[in-house]
Amino acid sequence: MPSRPHKKQRSAIGGDVVVRRALAWLNSYQAVSKWMHRYKILRLIEQQRVAIIDNFLPGHVAEGALRILEDIDAGQWRDTSADDETHKNNIAHSFWSLKGGKPAAGGQGGAANEALETLLRAFQVLLPDMFSTFSAGRYQRGSHIAPHDDRAYTPVRLDTGEVITCSRDVTCVYYLTKDWQESMGGAFVDLEAPPAAAAAAADSSGEQGLQQGRVLVPRFNTAVFFRVPHYHMVTPLTTDRPRWSIFGWYLQPGQLYELYTGQGDERQVKADAAAAAAAAAAAAGHQNEDAPCVADGQQQHTEGGTEQHPPSQQHQQQPHSAAVMQRRRKGTASKQRQLPAAENAPQCKLAQRMLARLAAKHQRKAELLHA
């Protein structure tokens, strides 16, 4: 279990001018929607596979976002951990995360948590036709994420009270740490980058090519997007400075792929071999023998831990079926295909209705062509 983050004595968040300016922008749906509309995320991912966007939010908003995370009371961060259990689709992980909202009874930092909820809500506007779930992440010395591909099912509770099963479709990681160096660890490693791309990545922008993949060193106010499944990892932190981020997923109704259970996935087997090297690097980077060696899990990969609670529908609408179907990747039947519901998993009635409508539409087109 990681040591709890140190509590920082700061001024009340409501009296912070930087935070107030950021919240004024974040609470304006018109401003957020206009800004986010400029990004054609799905098109960028199709073109680049891993899309990297610098200056993702207005500068003053990014400054306020960092302050929001720094001002969260230490007792509010949630310790998420799990053992390495491939039969449960888990990779061992242990770190701190928070979804925002009202703190637990008797807890402190309510204003900061509500400010975080406002910040996370802005990411829903980026792809409004998709379900989404986002959290804040704090990584400290020894934290890292073992190789994985983010595959996971997530229960979503609709406004009607119905719970449907969704699959992670697009991953987002938004970095909020300043002046970060590769030697500090915490770098994103794209394990699916072509060798030529990995070798060509060495430049002055904070990216560096390694034999095992392309390394992206976190840059303040930079967001990274990619489709699920996509193999990647995060190198172990070797510094006492915390690394801040917002992370999450945009979801599609249904079970779009099989989950890894320890057999039949050659790429995951190879990734598991790389995990041993990551663990060795983590151990080598520890100055304190008690510092934890952290790896993330399949149930909440990339920047967080196992997520047990369905995303709230308080601030997002049910996706329109046509828009959702248009967002499905072309030519990925081998990776993302509709599968029977897993044992004991909630049946996704919404996805079944969508697929039935799509099948009926194709049938009508076929009948017209042969008429």
TrEMBL record:
Superkingdom is: Eukaryota
Keyword Iron applies: yes
* Molecular function (Gene Ontology), one example: iron ion binding
- Domain (Fe2OG dioxygenase) spans 129-252
Entry keyword Hydrolase: no
* Region of interest called Disordered, as start-end residue ranges on this chain: 288-347
Cofactor(s) needed, names only, are: L-ascorbate
Here the segments flagged for biased composition (Low complexity) are 297-321
Which keywords label this protein?
Dioxygenase, Iron, Metal-binding, Oxidoreductase
Q: Which residues form the signal peptide?
A: none
Q: What is this protein called?
A: Fe2OG dioxygenase domain-containing protein
Q: Taxonomy-wise, where does this protein's organism fall, top ranks first?
A: Eukaryota, Viridiplantae, Chlorophyta, core chlorophytes, Trebouxiophyceae
